[in-house]
């Protein structure tokens, strides 16, 4: 089905694996198209209630394949390739997990930042590699990074371009959890299935309006919350949650 990625679903989770291990899963135009297609498929599939993005081999993603394109207009590369992918990640109203199994460099780090959660192997690392080739962080990097770590630390990471370990990333708030290499796949699966069994529509509404909050004032956010709560209040999962609470049992959410 795909040339540069792998896509499979199990237990309510869509697994998207960047699959160019010999190139450290570096992006090229075909991969952009396939990632966008996979994200759209996962977004539309009602059986999918969480999404995991990871990399094959020893890297998560090393960013752009600089040897794989002769297009010097990086602006168009972004507009046609990376930007639609980042917009899709943000607009999908399902939780998206970056399972960072190895180095996440350049646009690979940007990809991880655009996800809702980041689980990192103890062998993972993060590097704002753009500066080392005279470029600027892109693919949403300048949007997400300062929001996650603060302006001053974001400037430090972006301008100095120093590699940080998984543990350092955890201390900065970039990573949800650091996991041993041996337990990594199982821990990611457990985390993803946990999310897939939660109230999916409520998670989607949280994601939608938390993203909007950055460009909104308090009164707008209060109204967003009212709109979201009205919608959530009519879901089957809300009804199930209340019923389970009254019956003193664990709720069984269906994502509806």
TrEMBL record:
**UniProt GO molecular function:** catalytic activity
Q: Which PANTHER family match?
A: EG:BACN32G11.4 PROTEIN, ENOYL-COA HYDRATASE
As for family, the record states:
Belongs to the enoyl-CoA hydratase/isomerase family.
Name this protein carries in UniProt: Enoyl-CoA hydratase/isomerase family protein
Species annotation: Fictibacillus marinisediminis
